[in-house]
Design goal:
5-stranded parallel sheet, Diaminopimelate Epimerase, Chain A, domain 1, 325 residues, 6-stranded mixed sheet, inorganic pyrophosphatase (n-terminal core), alpha/beta, 13 helices
């Protein structure tokens, strides 16, 4: 299917390790095509009007690791052939090619990342980039997925790597978006295309400098007090770094409890809300979308961008949902 694509191509991808590695895999397969890659404005799970206008003159568009709103996709599809590779919750968009086994009812454990889905679609052997996307989306939790973790362990043993090496590479790749460097995010897939070993990722000077700055900020934010309400942790942060998912993950996994984090410092007029839940978060993802918020996630994760004046009411609804027996 990809071989049949003609003309100018655009790859739109998430800014994290899974999105970056997904595009790296696609770029290798599309090496004979005229393609560029872009990520949305960092923190946005949608395309702005300016982005949609800018992207209107491509012949084909591939969306990787992002559940963009249907109206965004249909706007792109007016002028281009659109393909989506994703593993997030959402609705199947039947007007375009939509490769997402999760929304078709398949077992999420068998499709732990978009990089894995793309790697299977391309019929590639197991490789570093397919697995980095998996580790990036699940970190230590992937050890609970015995089938996938065995694959990761075997790969590491064969390539003189450890699981901690994989985690460090994820943290380095994620550092560009967390520091707020959109251009570096977009440059990363092509860097990976030219890298021949894991050590080149581990020794990237800029990513290591970012990593040091981020660790200092993450430590500072984690040291701030959190509230616990009926077994659910509520934490407020104020930072210009895009670290809300990292903060939420660390708090939730250390405590084992439902966790809701609000960041008031990333956008001027909007707040970031992020949830890690032991309950199925799908009802609240749907509720957020019904309220008109940019909202998405997976079974255990909710991420939303909410106008500041509506943050308190939505947080109240989420907390009620999370604390309800």
């Amino acid at each position: 299917m990809l071989a049949e694509l003609q003309g100018k191509g655009l790859l739109i991808h998430h800014w994290d390790t899974d999105g970056i590695c997904s595009v790296r895999l696609l770029l290798e397969h599309l090496s004979d095509k005229n393609v560029v890659n872009k990520t949305p404005e960092l923190g946005n799970y949608f395309l702005t009007k300016n982005e949609l206008n800018e992207y209107s003159d491509y012949d084909f568009v591939i969306v990787a690791d992002m559940s963009l709103p249907k109206d965004n996709i249909l706007k792109l599809a007016k002028n281009a052939k659109v393909l989506i590779f994703d593993h997030h919750l959402g609705q199947e968009i039947k007007e375009v090619f939509h490769q997402n086994p999760i929304i078709k009812g398949e077992n999420p454990d068998e499709y732990p990342s978009t990089s894995w889905i793309i790697n299977c679609f391309l019929d590639n052997d197991v490789n570093l980039f397919a697995l980095l996307g998996v580790v990036g989306d699940h970190e230590q939790k992937i050890k609970n997925n015995q089938l996938t973790y065995t694959t990761i362990t075997n790969f590491c043993n064969e390539n003189n790597l450890t699981f901690n090496d994989m985690l460090k590479m994820v943290y380095l790749l994620d550092s560009s978006y967390k520091i707020g460097d959109k251009k570096a995010v977009e440059k990363a897939p092509r860097l990976l295309l030219n890298y021949t070993s894991a050590n080149e990722i581990l020794e990237n000077t800029q990513w290591n400098e970012n990593f040091t700055k981020l660790n200092e900020e993450i430590t500072k934010q984690l040291e701030q007090a959190s509230d616990e309400i009926n077994g659910t942790i509520l934490k407020k942060i104020n930072t210009s770094y895009n670290i809300i998912s990292t903060i939420t993950r660390k708090v939730a996994w250390e405590s084992g409890k439902n966790t809701l984090v609000i960041n008031t410092g990333f956008f001027e007029d909007m707040d970031q809300i992020y949830v890690r839940s032991n309950k199925n978060a799908e009802p609240m993802i749907k509720r957020g979308k019904d309220l008109g918020f940019k909202c998405g996630g997976k079974k255990e994760v909710l991420g939303a961008i909410v106008p500041k004046e509506k943050t308190d009411s939505f947080v109240e609804e989420i907390m009620e949902f999370l604390t309800k027996k």
